[in-house]
Design goal:
Distance between the termini: 38 Å
CATH topology of the largest domain: Immunoglobulin-like
Number of domains: 3
Bound molecules: tryptophan, zinc ion
CATH class of the largest domain: Mainly Beta
Shape: globular
CATH superfamily of the largest domain: tricorn interacting facor f3 domain
Number of helices: 11
Strand content: 25-35%
Length: 476
């Protein structure tokens, strides 16, 4: 589910766009047959979508609609035995295309009914479909693989992918963990729906995104089927598994809430878990209806991970969260999950929004006001000489994309904007942003135009100071 090619290309920065176009053009020039008018002109899909932070991520030439992932996993052996069926639509005539995959050995690969030649080159899984694929054709890729998926280390040294715990696996995917266990088009620009069918030893619980549609036990093995009906970015997919205490409730607005908590963390997590319905209700009142048909949380013990992630419909926590962290991950369901970034340098659109939403929740629930939080020593109260002010909000770089700046300066940007355009325009802006771009892909430039439109003001200088310049803003 990608946006049209031209809209996608228009969002790249100059250098990345040039690189992406060059690749596509070279491929076309060298590989296309000198066809007759109306005949297919086959070429290779682009091996990248050109993100400067993660240049191997994503692939061109097709658009994934659905991932159907069937696997067995045993925490004792750490062996995954998986078959993933990808349904996609070709967006050009293809004689070759790539998926992203860093998982274990592939035992068979088919395109449609036909075994296809493939080779692996870093995270690229290069596939040669025969017969070739015509533009507009819907096709399936069936990949069978078996072994232990890897832990992936990020540019900031944090870990993700397939992270074994003492009773299962913790599965975070942002920004590049999904290909550890899922052959995929690993870009937030290509959202799709998902089905997970996971078989584990009886007693182990598998928690995926979306809705649990079946759970059956035979011969001491349990199969869980999880369905995500709304489009989802690959980095938001999870199939976290282990020993969990499961509880189900609903929000006042009727959204089912499924929580899975490591038995050792139930007491410590109780406060944050109990507030989920209230938090979702409050955010629905400020940001518009909750965007998905299910909600919940997965609270696990994964001490080496040390962060939480907004996995779609089921944020995952590597330890017992505070109410504030719970609010942050739930706010991401609107900002980050439903409304997605198209390139990682725009990470403030995720983290600044989730952080500001948490400031609002704190004020709403009787704590510090958003203005007090803005003024605090972790925010605007930092000295002008602090290194904090030397990172650019709207392009922090891959090492600092989950550092303080996209979170805190991002949230400060929104609070300053609210002061600049007034409460009425500001709250209309953030609600319309969530509604108009539901399940879509956005950029910083889109947000600047939306803010200018709702306020009727020229905000170029304002956003330049807050998002694109280094240094502590002093006037805006
Ligand atoms: N997006 C997560 C959050 O703010 C944090 C996160 C995801 C992260 N991946 C990470 C933090 C890698 C550090 C390293 O909720
Ligand atoms: Zn976040």
């Amino acid at each position: 589910m990608t946006s049209p090619r031209t809209r996608r290309a228009a969002r790249f920065g100059g250098a990345a766009l040039a690189a992406a176009l060059l690749t596509a053009t070279q491929a076309t020039a060298s590989l296309a047959a000198p066809g007759n008018p109306g005949e297919p002109r086959y070429s290779a899909g682009a091996p990248s979508l050109g993100d400067p932070y993660f240049p191997d991520q994503g692939n061109g030439g097709f658009d994934v609609r659905h991932y159907d992932v069937t696997f067995a996993y045993d925490p004792a052996t750490k062996i995954m035995d998986a078959t993933t069926v990808i349904t996609a639509v070709a967006t050009q005539d293809l004689d070759r295309f790539d998926l992203d995959f860093r998982g274990p050995e592939i035992t068979s690969l088919k395109v449609g009914k036909h075994p296809a030649a493939f080779r692996r080159d870093g995270q690229e899984l290069v596939i040669t479909p025969r017969p070739k694929l015509k533009a507009g054709e819907t096709f399936t890729v069936t990949v069978a693989y078996k072994g232990t998926p890897p832990v992936i280390t990020d540019p900031d040294e944090s870990i993700e992918g397939w992270v074994p715990t003492d009773d299962g696996v913790f599965v975070p995917g942002e920004p590049q963990g999904a290909p550890a266990w899922l052959p995929s088009n690993d870009s937030p620009k290509d959202k799709a729906t998902f089905t997970f069918r996971a078989t584990v030893p009886e007693g182990v619980t598998v928690v995926g995104n979306g809705r649990l549609t079946s759970k059956t036990t035979t011969n001491a093995k349990t199969t869980f089927v999880w369905e995500s009906a709304e489009p989802m970015a690959t980095y938001l997919a999870t199939v976290t598994l282990g020993n969990f205490v499961v509880a189900e409730t609903t929000t006042p607005g009727g959204v089912p809430v499924y929580t899975a908590v490591d038995p050792r963390l139930v007491t410590q997590s109780a406060g944050a878990v109990a507030r989920i319905p209230d938090i979702l209700e409050y955010f629905s009142s400020v940001f518009g209806p909750y965007p998905f048909d299910t909600a919940g949380a997965i609270i696990d013990r994964a001490p080496d991970v040390g962060y939480a992630l907004e996995s779609q419909t089921k944020p995952i926590f590597s330890s017992a969260p505070s109410v504030g962290t719970m609010a942050h991950e739930l706010a991401h369901q609107w900002y980050g999950d439903s409304v997605s970034l198209g390139r990682w340098s725009d990470i403030w659109l995720n983290e600044g929004f989730a952080t500001y939403a948490t400031w609002l929740w704190t004020e709403h629930s009787g704590g510090a006001t958003a203005q007090q939080t803005f003024n605090s020593s972790s925010n605007y109260g930092r000295a002008a000489t602090s290194s904090f002010w030397q990172i650019v909000t709207a392009d922090p770089g891959p090492e600092d994309m989950f550092g303080n700046v996209p979170y805190n300066r991002g949230a400060m940007t929104l609070h300053a904007l609210r002061g600049k355009i007034g409460d009425t325009a500001f709250f209309r802006l953030v609600k319309d942003w969530a509604t108009e771009h539901r399940y879509g892909t956005v950029s910083t430039a889109d947000f600047v135009s939306a803010a200018e439109k709702v306020s009727g003001l020229d905000l170029k200088a304002f956003f330049d100071v807050w998002l694109h310049q280094k240094g502590k803003p002093t006037s805006w």
